[in-house]
Amino acid sequence: GAVVSQHPSRVICKSGTSVKIECRSLDFQATTMFWYRQFPKQSLMLMATSNEGSKATYEQGVEKDKFLINHASLTLSTLTVTSAHPEDSSFYICSAFSGDGRHYEQYFGPGTRLTVT
Amino acid sequence: SQKIEQNSEALNIQEGKTATLTCNYTNYSPAYLQWYRQDPGRGPVFLLLIRENEKEKRKERLKVTFDTTLKQSLFHITASQPADSATYLCACSGAGSYQLTFGKGTKLSVIP
C-alpha cells in the first residue's frame, strides 16, 4: 500500500502557542487529504477535507480559524493548530487519497499525539 | 443521522479460531464499506473494501461480507494469530463521496 508520513509524531506545547503538523504522501500524488482527530477509545472524527490548490472544507463544529489547513502540493498538507488549549490535546491523523476514480481506500499517516499543557 | 455501529467494544478469542466482527449501519446506504486495522498509537491501515453490489470479498485469511438487506458487514479472520490482536475499524462512504464515516472499532485480542 501507499506510504503516508506525518511529522512530528509527538508534540507538547504550552497553552496559547501554535503547532504545525505535516502530512506527506511519499509514493503517490494525493489530490485529496483528510484530517481526523481521535480521542481515547473513540472513533476517528473527520475534521476537514483538503484538496490540492484550494481551500479546505471543514466539518460542522470545526473552527477553520483555529485549525488552519494548507495543501500546497500533491504530496504535502499541513495542519496548524493555532492558540492551542488543553482541550485540543488529541491524536491527529491525516490520510491521503488518490482520487483516480478507481481506488476508494485512504492511506493514513502514523498520527501525531498533541499534548497542550 | 448516519450511524456506524460496531457492537462489540472488545472480543477475545483463542489462537487458531475464526474471529468474526460485526458492523451495522443505520440511516445510511453506503456504496463502499471498508475495514481498517489500527494498532495502539498508530494510524489505521487499510485491509479490505467491498462495494454495495458485492456480497463477499477475500484476501488471504480475511473475509468481508456486505448484506444491504440487514445493513450489516461481517469481518472474519480465519486461523487467528496473536499478531492479529488490534482494533479493527469499519468505515463507510456514499456514492460519489470519498469521505469516510468510522465506527468506534472492536478491539480484538487473540489469546495464545
- Please give the largest β-sheet of chain B: 6 strands, mixed
- Total beta strands of chain A: 11
The stretches of 5 or more residues of chain B where confidence is low (pLDDT under 50) are none
Number of helical segments of chain B? 0
Low-confidence stretches of chain A: none
β content of chain B, as a range? over 45%
What share of residues of chain B is helical? under 10%
User: What is the radius of gyration of chain B computed over CA atoms, rounded to a whole number of angstroms?
Assistant: 13 Å
Write a structural description:
The complex is a heterodimer of chains A (117) and B (112). In chain A, strands 2, 4, 5, 6, 9, 10 and 11 form a seven-stranded mixed beta sheet that branches. A four-stranded antiparallel beta sheet of chain A has the order 1-3-8-7, with no helix packed on it. Chain A is built from no helices and eleven strands. The model of chain A has no long low-confidence stretch (mean pLDDT 91). Chain A has 117 residues and is mainly β. Chain B is built from no helices and eleven strands. Chain B has strands spanning 3-5, 10-14, 19-26, 32-38, 45-51, 56-59, 62-67, 72-77, 86-93, 101-102, 106-111. In chain B, the strands form two sheets. In chain B, strands 2, 4, 5, 9, 10 and 11 form a six-stranded mixed beta sheet that branches. The interface between A and B is medium-sized, with 25 and 22 residues.
